[in-house]
Amino acid sequence: MVNMHKVTMLMKMAVDKKAIKGMIKTYRILKEDQAFNLMKYVKMMTSMQKGEKIMKHEGEYIISTFMPSFPSESFFTNIRAVKEPKDIFTQQIYGKRSAPISSYLSVTHKCPNNCVYCSAKIGQAEKELTAEQWIRVIKDLQNMKTSIIGLTGGEPLVREDIFEIVKAIDQRSTAMLFTSGFNLTLERARELKKNGLFSIGISLDSHDREGHNHNRSDERAFDMALTALQNARQAGLYVMAQTVALKTNLGKDQLFKLFKLAGDNGAHEVKLLEPILSGKLLNEENLDQILYNAANRKKLIDIQHKANQVKEFPKISTFAYTESEAKFGCGAGTQHAYISASGDLYPCDFVPMSFGNVTENSVKTLWQEMNAVMGTPKIGCFAQKINKEVYRKAQGNLPLDKERSTEIGLNNQSEKFPQYYRALQ
Questions:
Q1: Do the Cβ atoms of 193 and 236 come closer than 8 Å?
Q2: pTM for the predicted model, two decimal places
Q3: Which CDD domains match (predicted)?
């Protein structure tokens, strides 16, 4: 079936002067590499938008929130984020990066919720970085050419200095923030926008008030999330409703109701995440009832593709598709990085393996060391594969120390690139 929304958006891009200039600029950056040609360029752009619903926001096109909007300055930051200033295309398709595509900063471990699948409740130190320390980290990340900087937690909106931290992220990177919707008044949403925030992810677990509130252990959570969606949209942010889709909630009818609810309340996009074997889930006994199998992921991907044909729905994206072998793969430590509230650098939000602390060494040095250990993008979720080993070796003392983290990383490097990379190599 032809996706008319996508056809329409591609036609708009084809006559959009800003988009045309962006496509020409991209081509000129990459054409100095002898491995690059027009056919590879077409294949690269086609692969990026495969399975996606393209959205336009403030003159820029969101192809996939895995990468910055096109043709933003941060989009070109991402292209240039390689180890050497030549043969950029070759370095990109073999994962030889100077920085992660995205880095998420847990600016606090504090949170008013107590979610059943939370990855941040175990092993968190009380000490948190100051705003000045986070601003220094952000500067270093941007100088490395990190193209997306996400502020997360815990609940980042419990910090009164959150606007100061957001403001430190300049146009070289896309600024995101992830929240339960806690205290996101219209005034605060506008202040975030004024200080440079591009997009916001607001947790919405279910179309059902009771289901959402049960997951969050808070009777106010559902109404708070809907109000936050509305306020964020009115403030001019790119609004994402983020859902950890439990295995029991993977029915098409249930999810379509969620998509409609999110869209009706202001969401441009619904991101479907899956429960990860981390945090509180490590203590669960009935994991087969919680964690996905291959059939569950296939079902979710099919729902994503069908939903993206529905004109009235927001853009739908799934962890199951975006980070699968068929697309970009798992970016733990290679395309993505995470810094805990106390400053430890992890491969991703769900993998408590510390490769050092940014208060003791530069994030650039720590990233280079971690990236060398983690290798190339993986074809399956790294956290699902190794977290039992991580927690067993840590014996309750998280995060795992650098020596044992390095050993696990080296022993689990991928021998195969995800499809996006393979197609261009």
A1: yes
A2: 0.94
A3: Radical_SAM (cd01335)
